[in-house]
Every structure is written in C-alpha cells, then in structure tokens.
Amino acid sequence: MTEPTRIPAPDGVAPATQYSHVVSATGRLVAVSGQLALDENGKLVGEGDPAAQARQVFENLRRCLAAAGAGFEHVVKLTYFVTDTAHLPAVRAARAAHIPDDRLPASSAVQVAALVAPEFLMEIEALAVVAE
Prior knowledge:
Blueprint: E1 5-7, E2 22-24, E3 28-35, H1 50-67, E4 75-82, H2 88-96, E5 106-111, E6 122-130
Parallel strand pairs: 4-5
Antiparallel strand pairs: 1-2, 3-6, 4-6
Helix pairs in contact: 1-2
C-alpha cells in the first residue's frame, strides 16, 4: 500500500477542519460495516451517553479493522450516522483517541431519524486500504 495521500483543501474548495476532502491510496480495500455501541456479548454500552457509545463504537471499529489486518492508520473514509448532530463532539473526541489530526480520513456525517433500535445514538462505518 502506498501511504494515503490526504488533500484537506483542493483548489476552489473551502478548507476542512474535521476531515480531509480527498484521500487516495492503492492496496486491498477493507470495508467495515456500521458499528454500534455493543460489547462483545451484544449488550449496549452507554445508554443515553454519546461519549461512552462513541468510545465503544471506535473500539469495535478497531477490532474489526484488526481482524482484516488493518488499523486506523489505514482508514481512508469514515461515515457517521447520528440521531442528533449534538453527538458529533463526542464522536470527534473518540476519533481523536485513534486518529491524529494530521491523518484525518475523508468523512461524511448524516443525521438520521432513527437507527436499528432507539437506544443507539450513532453508527459508524469505515473504509480502509492496506497493502496487498
């Protein structure tokens, strides 16, 4: 895999502070399904607590990436589904524990009316590229 190239502000596009507008890399694609705040036994972590849910979701992402031989350094895109955009600071804090500001992936954040069950505040999916 080549080191991902991050372009936070392409010519003519307003600069991004919380993500990179463009990330490109070559290698093997790893797609991680949306992760919820469930522990290894399928129990909800952090009912009503966006920070606790975000930490658990990022731990689940870490475990899923590791199962495919990847880590957060390989992530090129994150997609956040949140039931309230007020949860985004908690998501960003959890992300910061795993991804430094100079390696931010491309990302999209979408506020949704609901997730699979009302107790879930967020779901996050990842795309990564690793060496073949």
